[in-house]
Amino acid sequence: MNFLTEVENLSSLLKNTSLNDNDLKELIQKCQHFTNSFFPIGHDIFRQLNDISIEPKGSYFPEMYQKLKTESLKASIQSINRFLAKSKDEFERLLIEKPFEEIIKNEESQFLEFKSTLCWDAKNSKVDKKIMGEIIMKSISAFSNSEGGVLLIGIKDDKKILGLASDYKIFKNGDGNRDDFELHLTSLIINNFSKTFAKDNISIEFPTVGSKEICLIRIKKGEIPFTVKISDKSGQTKEKFFIRVNNSSREIDNLLEFARYIKLKFPGWN
Predict the structure, then answer these.
(1) C-beta separation of 134 from 232 below 8 A
(2) Are 61 and 53 in contact (CB under 8 A)?
(3) Residue 140: which of 208, 216, 86, 207 has the closest Cα?
(4) Which of 60, 110, 185, 195 could covalently link to 55 via disulfide, CB atoms 3.0 to 4.6 Å apart?
C-alpha cells in the first residue's frame, strides 16, 4: 500500500469516527493537505525555466526537476510516515475516552489491555489474590508510566468474554458481588500507589456484555513514576518499573535506560 493510500484511509477513518473533537478535525485537514499538495512545485515552473535556460533544452531543468521531485517525494514520505505514526497514537489515545461499546471493538494496543480475572488463577484452578493482583497492578503502573490507557478485566486475550463471576465467588464464601470486587481492587490500587492516585488517576466502571459484567479501568497518564512489588518464583517481592511497549507491559531493568526514561517522561519530578 502506498503512502497516499495510507493517508486517504486514515482520513476516511477519522471522518467516520463518532468523536467531534478539534484534534480530529485538525488531523483530517492535515491528511487532506498531504493528499492534495504533497509536491508543491509544479512541472510548469520547470518548463518555463527550461525555455529561458542557457543550457540545451531538455537537459538541465528537466534533470533538476526530476532530482528535486525525487528528493521532495522522499522527504514527503518521511514526513507522512511520521505523521501517520503520530496520528495513529493520537487516535488510539482518544479512543480510550470512548464508551465501552467502542473500546471493545479494538485489539490490545499501547492503550488497551485485556485480563481474564483479578483473583482467580484459571491456569492452576485456584484462588491467588496476591499473584493475580500483582499482574493487574503491573498493567496499571505500565499505563500510568506511559501515556495512560484502559484495562478490561473479564476478557481473554482473544476477546472471549468471561465476565467476573469467578472473581465474585471468591468473596464472602461465594456470595460476593460487584461491590466486594471493587472494594478489593480499590484497596490494591491504594496499597500499591496512593489514595490520591486512586481518586485522581483511576476510573472504574462495570459495563455488561449480555448477562456478564466486565470491569473497565481507565488509567490517566501519571505525573510521577510508579514502581510495583512483584513476586518471584521463590515468593520474594521486588520493586519493578514497567512501561507500555506496543501491546504489552515491559520492565525497564537497566539503570541507564531507566534514568533516561524518567528524565524524558517526568522532567519536573525529582
Answers:
(1) no
(2) yes
(3) 216
(4) 60
Q: What are phi and psi of 130, to 5 degrees?
A: -70, -60
Domains in the chain: boundaries: 3-95, 102-265
CA distance 169 to 166: 6
Q: Is the pLDDT of residue 95 over 80?
A: no
Q: Amino acid letter at 207? A: P
Cβ atoms of residues 162 and 199 within 8 Å: no
Rounded to whole angstroms, what are the CA distances from 21 to 98, 103, 111, 217, 241?
12, 17, 19, 23, 34
Percentage of the chain lying above the pLDDT 70 cut: 65
Would you tell me which CATH number, out of the four given (1.10.10, 2.60.40, 3.30.950, 1.10.600), belongs to the domain 102-265?
3.30.950
User: What's this model's pTM, rounded to 2 decimal places?
Assistant: 0.69
pLDDT of 196-207, one tens digit each?
A: 999 999 999 999
Judge whether 93 and 148 are in contact, CB under 8 Å: yes
Q: For the chain, what is the mean pLDDT?
A: 81
Rounded CA-CA distance 10/12 in Å is 5
Q: Please tell me the distance from the alpha carbon of residue 222 to that of residue 148, in angstroms, as a whole number.
A: 7
Q: How many helices (H) and strands (E) does the chain have?
A: 10, 12
Q: Where are the alpha helices (DSSP H) in the chain?
A: 3-16, 22-36, 43-51, 60-95, 100-103, 129-145, 165-168, 178-192, 195-200, 255-265
- The residues, any chain, with a CB within 8 Å of residue 225's CB and separated by 6 or more, are 145, 241, 262, 265, 266, 269
Instruction: Encode pLDDT of 77-87 as tens digits.
Output: 666 667 666 66
